[in-house]
Design goal:
CATH class of the largest domain: Alpha Beta
Largest sheet: 5 strands, parallel
Helix content: 25-40%
Radius of gyration: 16 Å
Number of domains: 2
Strand order of the largest sheet: 2-1-6-7-8
Structural class: alpha/beta
Length: about 210
Amino acid sequence: MNATYRDRAEAGATLADLLRSIGGDPDVVVLGLVRGGVPVAAAVADRLGVPLDVLVVRKLGLPEAPEVAFGAVGPGGLRVLNAEIADRLAPEEVDAVVRAETAELERRERLYRRDRPPLRLDGRTAVIVDDGLATGATARAAVGVARQLGARRVVLAVPVGAPQAYEILLRAADEVVCPERPADFSAVSRYYDDFHEVPDSEVVAALTGSR
């Protein structure tokens, strides 16, 4: 099978074409999810002529099954919990996971934001961008964090995603833009020729270049 996208920049260009109607809107901000979503988001923001920022979200995973999210933490101490899953855990188990993920979130915030002001989304349209949608857990958490940060409207934009995850996000976001939803979806990397692990330096460079 041939990959759908050459790299994350090409994927971002594809999303930008589908988001053209919001180009130039002063209330729009494009938020790249760390780390792989930032190069995609940078291409979207550049083509649409809107600001680029980073949304650092850390998924809260069950201690015995980290891939299963019971919530997320976001900037400024924000916490979004899925009570249906979180209530299965003892309070001390929740606190331990929250402490660990908050520490990593704060490290990344210091690294990526540097002299940027704290992220504020009051009354804005937040376009959350990632490089793909597998389980949808992180994206769903990011939508919840964006709403808590005051976003008036939340759009999720991803180049490719699993159909089941897409259906979940339709119920969470105000709009989901996902041009490729293959029925035999297996992994995001399968749809890129170049799907290298994005280093911190590439994230910082993208954010610096957007100013």
